[in-house]
Amino acid sequence: MKYKDYYATLGVPIDADLDQIKKAYRKLARTHHPDMSKAADAESRFKEVAEAYATLKDPEKRAAYDELGRHPAGEEFSPPPQWQRDAASDVPSFDEADLADFLARMGRGHMGGYAHEPRSRRGRDYEAAIQISLEDALSGKTVNLSLNEGHDTKTLEVTIPPGVAQGQKLRLRGKGAKGHNGGENGDLYLHITLAPHPVFRTDGHDLYFDLALAPWEAALGKDIQVPTLDGAVMLTVPAGTQTGRKLRLRGRGLQDGKGGRGHLYAVVHIAMPATLTARERELYTQLSQVSTFNPRASATKEQNHASHAT
Predict the structure, then answer these.
(1) Domain annotation covers residue 308
(2) Containing domain of residue 267, as a range?
């Protein structure tokens, strides 16, 4: 007997539900119907599609077909011994039998227990994308998801644990489609994205934010109140802090899923006042007259060194 891959014929997965099977059949039947197609093999393809559909739409025939296992299409194979004993009086030679005729006997009470004991099948997995805030990534959150299951909408309550990261794929066991005939439920896979935050940027489990300092704050140093996901804290800015310096607050980032947390980094930017009062201008003028600081000294030194080298 030659094996026919009915799932491949219809182009559906082996765990396809009846709606998927019907949809695939209708599409292929229209495509290959002899009245619709001019292809030379239209009639034979139409018959193959109809044969596959006739088996997979029937729960007993499909269960019996699945019991045969998977084989390459067209491969010669022999059904299990139990099948051969039960059908011996009706099928004189399995080598000459046609798989469709063989399965059609399921509807006439043959094949012993196979007709009444369909194989259990695991439910299919679901996949969904969800976007959460940084605050929710830190503390976790329970959300309601609406998933399409055939023609119905299924609502699930799922818990996002603390410590999820950007791009993480979260597996929730047993939250997928229900299993068939006692099979286990499928799983739900959540693709996590973190929503943009008005203050913080993410890099793995670390967080970054921009800290603007006045020139005198950077020069003299200062204790400044800064935001974190846990609330405001005090940050000590050392005297002589330069633009671009990263000031670290340990353990103020996102949870890493292992009981720890990343860090929070304040990236310094020195901001200048757009306008000056008369008194401010006077003080800046005095500073310029007494200060020996030259911000371009290193660049001038390197330029002179390069000139002597040539």
Answers:
(1) no
(2) 201-283
Statement: residue 75 has pLDDT above 70: yes
Domain-terminating residue out of 115, 147, 168? 115
pLDDT reading at 144 higher than 80: yes
Give me the pLDDT at residue 102, please.
64
Residue 306 is which amino acid?
A
Residue 150 shares a structural domain with residue 218: no
